[in-house]
Amino acid sequence: MPGTWAIIVAAGRGSRLGGETPKQYLHLGKHSILTHTLRKFATHSKVDGIMVVIHPDDSPLFQDNCAAFTDRVLIQHGGDTRQESVRNGLLALQDQSPDCVLIHDAARPFVSDEVISNLVNVANEGTAAIAASPVVDSLKYAPDTTIEKNIERAGLWHAQTPQAFPYSMIVEAHLSVTDQENHTDDAAVAEACGNSITLIHSDRSNFKITTNEDLELAKNMILNPQNNRIIMESRTGLGYDVHCFEDGDHVTLCGVNIPHTRKLKGHSDADVGLHALTDAILGALCEGDIGTHFPPSDPQWKGAKSDQFLEFARDLVIKRGGKIIHVDVTLVCERPKIGPHRDSMVTRMSEILDISSSRVSIKATTSERLGFTGREEGIAAQAVATIQIPAEN
Ligand code: MG
Fold first, then answer.
1. Is 125 helix (H, G, I), strand (E, B) or coil?
2. 381 CA from centroid of ligand 1 (Å)
3. Is 86 a member of any domain?
4. Of the residues 221, 240, 271, which one is the last residue of a structural domain?
5. The model scores a pTM over 0.85
6. Strands 128-134 and 139-141
7. End residue of a domain, out of 186, 221, 256
8. Residue 311 belongs to a domain with what CATH number?
């Protein structure tokens, strides 16, 4: 049957994921990874036929896991390397004489319909094309974990599959490279024979399930599909607060009681750090300020611990379907010294916010004896909070 065929490469052993079962037969919810991948191609209007390349030992596994597809796909045994497996699949399609083929890794079940369509359109015009996503991280060259140089990321892409080719082009290429060359993808095989390849923009959700972390992410994407459709946006909020000193024997800063010759005056416990941070989170949410929600005139907040103000702001983020990414508080005072208490403050704030302490920063500075903080009349605090919440339309 001419037209477009998909070759699904499912002959690997998946040794990096451990265990006895090859990774393409591990389950995401009710179905194996391979089943999810097959369904993408079996239901696509531009795909006319499917060839699955499996390991010779995996026939029972394939029958058990992919029974719904056994009468809709052709099966071919793979070889010792990926390159050999693809070649076997290509040659087994000779009788079908496809116009073009999509070669795809079984372990990429999240390829989008749109990417498949775009690849087929290009390949049908006689040009090879592969799915790829742009490199977004900074790249470092560090052969022994010490950075030797930075790599310019502009123009760099992660090659994915599917990779689409006119059938005759990719068969000729695979027959002309040697097994010793062992190219890691079919684009490299085609390039080795002088063909030029077009990139089709794909996104990072089309990742290859390789590690246990990938597997957990993939399970979550299958079991909670609503999560996949939510586009998050980052928000930043700024907070500022001041409290003056009065007679007393301790201050409460960032949730920690610190012995001092004076205390901070306020309706609540006057925790200037937590107040600034609460305002920062409220600011990121555009939800007013701490006085809006906890008016100083309301007697119920007299002497209140400020933990609950911060918990309130945290819960507002959670109710909006968001999460707190990072907080950074700066305390401005001559005394008490903050350094000895910094670690316990970070621990306490990470407990209140229910985030890792690696996402909590506390800094301190004096104001060089200038102004009200310099004269030790009070303490000031600034805070920045970065959150993610579902994007508004
Ligand atoms: Mg305050």
1. coil
2. 9
3. yes
4. 221
5. no
6. unpaired
7. 221
8. 3.30.1330.50
Pair of tokens at residue 215: 């597997």
pLDDT in tens, 129-188: 999 988 878 899 999 889 999 998 888 999 999 999 999 999 999 999 987 888 889 999
**Distance from Cα 265 to the centre of ligand 1, integer Å:** 9
322 or 373, which is more confident: 373
Mean pLDDT score of the chain, rounded to an integer? 92
Same domain, 159 and 285: no
Cα(189)–Cα(193) distance, integer angstroms: 7
Q: What is the pLDDT of residues 215-230, one digit of tens each?
A: 999 998 888 766 555 5
Q: Ligand 1 centre and the CA of 361: distance in Å?
A: 20
Q: Is 226 a domain residue?
A: no
Residues 110, 15 contacting (CB under 8 angstroms):
no
The CATH number given to whatever domain includes residue 156 is 3.90.550.10
Assess whether 112 and 151 both reside in one domain: yes
CA of 302 to the centre of ligand 1 (A): 12
The H-or-E segment that residue 260 falls in is: none
Domain interval for residue 275? 232-390
Distance CA 341, CA 379 (A): 16
Q: Please tell me whether the peptide bond between 60 and the residue prior to it is cis, using omega within 30 degrees of 0.
A: no
Distance 98 CA to ligand 1 centre (A): 72
Written as six digits, the tokens of 45 are 């209007």
Residues 166 and 195 in one domain: yes
Residue carrying structure tokens 């379907």: 321
Q: What is the DSSP string of 198-238?
A: EEEE--TTS----SHHHHHHHHHHHH-HHHHHPPEEEEEEE
Ligand 1 centroid, distance to 321 Cα (angstroms):
27
Backbone angles phi, psi at 6, to 5 degrees: -105, 135
74 and 145 within one domain: yes
Using the mean position of ligand 1's atoms as its centre, give its distance from the Cα of residue 340 in Å.
23
How many domains in the chain?
Answer: 2
In single-letter form, the type of residue at position 25 comes to Y
Q: How far is the CA of 271 from the centre of ligand 1 (A)?
A: 7
